[in-house]
C-alpha cells in the first residue's frame, strides 16, 4: 500500500516558505510564511507537514532520484549510455576518475543533503514549543529528525570525509563560514543520531497514512551499517540483533517483489524513498517533484516507448563484466539487467540499444504515468532486509564465526544469513567455512543482490580495506587505470563552495 508523506520546505536565513503534503499531497499555500511563532500557533496538520518536509530532499535528483544511483556507474558496473550532446559528462568524468573540483555531479552530491539537514535541525530545535502536539508525537517527530539527519550525514561523510557538523537551526546571527569537522567526530554524531532515533521511533505505525516514515528497525539497520563501515563488528551484530528481535522483517519470497510498485514498503523493506506519479504541482525536472526518474533514465533507448511521453533515455549501460559475474541459475539476473532475448510486452530486447549490450531493468515500472515524463511511482530502496542479512554474514565471518555466517539454509526463512539470500536467488548453499574464501563470496553476493540500488557497490569498494587497494585492484581489472589512492576514495568538495567559504579548505587529497 502506497502512502506519500513527503513535503517541501525552503529554509532561508530569516523566514521559511512551506508547502506541505500528506497522503496524496495535500498542499499548503506555497506563499505561506513560517514565522518565528509557527510552532506555538501551528495546527497539528501544519506541524506534521513541516516534519514531512525533512524527507523531501531524499526524493530529489541530488540524491536518490539520480545522483545516488549513478554512484553505481562510478563503481564500475556500467557506463553512461546515450551521451549525445554531452549527456552525463559529469558522471563519465567521475567514473573515469578524471573529475576535478568543479564537477557538477560531485557538487550535487555535496549540496543535496544540506537542505534536509537544515530541516531536521529546524524540527529538533523547535518541536517542543508546540502546545498542540502530544508528547508521544513530539518524541516520534524528534526520532524521525535524528534518523534523517543521521542518513544525510552518513552519505556525506562516506563521500567527502571531513564535513561540517551542524546540529542546530542556524540564524542570521550565526557564523555561516563553517569549517569541516573530523570524520571520526561526525561518525560518532551519526551513531548518536541513529541510536536516539531507535529509542524514539515505533517498530511499526498504527496509521497506514504513516507508511514510509522512519522506524525503529530502519534506525537499527543503518546503525549496523555505520558500525560495519567502521569495522566495529561486535557492535554491528548487536544492532542487527535489535533488528531481528523486532520480528517485523523477512525476505520477500521473490526477489522481484522488491521492485514492484504494487508491493512497496513490504516485509523486506526497512526504509525506502517514497515516489508518487501524477502530482502536477511540479514540472518534470523540478527538484521538488514527486515522481521517480529511474524508469525513464534507465530503460533502453529503443524504438518501443516503455517510458513516459519523452521515451526512454538508456542512461545506464551495464558492462558485460557485471552481467557475466552472475552465477548460472541466479534468478536476480533477469530482474536486474536487460539481456538479448528478454521480452517485454511483445518486444524483444535488442543489444544494440546499449553501447555495452545491456541496460538496467530493475526499476522498470509498468504503472508509470503516461501523460507526464519523469513520473514513476516506484519507490527507491535505501535499506532492505537482504542487506541486513549480508551485513550479519560479513560481521560474523570477520569475527571468525564463519560457520554461523554460512550455515545451511533450506529456504529464505531459515539458516545462515548468507545462504538465506542465496537460496532466495535460486542458488545452492555455500558450504565453505574458510574465512578468506567466504569473505570474497559475501562481497560477491552483496554486489549481485544490491546492484544499482543507490551506491552500495561504491560504498562497499571503498570500505573493504583502509588503503583502497581492494578498490584499486577491481578498477584495474576492468581497465579503470586512472583510479589512484587516496585521491579517488573521496569526491572533491566543490570549488564554488570553497570560493564562497575558504574555511572548507583543505580540499580532499589530490584535488
UniProtKB/TrEMBL annotation:
Keywords on record: Cell outer membrane, Membrane, Signal
A Pfam family assignment: SusD-like_3
Gene3D superfamilies: 1.25.40.390
Subcellular location field: Cell outer membrane
One annotated Gene Ontology cellular component of this protein: cell outer membrane
Domain of life: Bacteria
PROSITE patterns noted in UniProt: PROKAR_LIPOPROTEIN
Domain RagB/SusD residue range list: 354-511
Sequence ranges assigned to domain SusD-like N-terminal in this UniProt record: 63-228
Family in the record: Belongs to the SusD family.
Protein name, as recorded: RagB/SusD domain-containing protein
